[in-house]
Amino acid sequence: MSHSHGNVSSANDPRQPSAAKPYTPRPIAPEDLPVDYSGFIAVILGVSGVMFRYKICSWLALIFCAQSLANMRNFENDLKQISMAMMFAIMGLVTNYLGPNRPAATKK
Asked: Which of 60, 63, 70, 87 is deepest in the core (most CB within 10 A)?
């Protein structure tokens, strides 16, 4: 039993190439886009890295900034949020590594 893939199968093909239309996604308003959680987490971690001087928070903020930058949908709003988070992350890293050390807790 041989199965031919020649003109016989194309003659019985019910699809109509002339009726095919390219896919165009619906335009979405910037207000209706989902929340950028990685950008929000980057801001929170950046602020906590600066305020509480946690190095891990500043490093995680930098990673979340990169993730948010890679998944950016709305250029203007996301760029403002990412730049703010990036500044907090860099400021936290600079103050943690180059700033004065925290006074050590002394036992009495």
From this structure: 60
Q: 43-91 pLDDT, tens per residue?
A: 999 999 999 999 999 999 999 999 999 988 888 878 888 999 999 999 9
Contacts of 64 (CB under 8 A, 6+ apart): 38, 39, 41, 42, 45, 85
Residue 41 has pLDDT above 90, yes or no: yes
Of 96, 50, 87, residue with least CA distance to 65? 87
Cα-trace Rg, the chain: 27
Q: What is the rounded CA–CA span in Å between residue 50 and residue 61?
A: 11
- 81 CB contacts (<8 Å, ≥6 apart)? 36, 39, 40, 43, 68
Q: What angle do CA 53, 39, 48 make, to 5 degrees?
A: 15
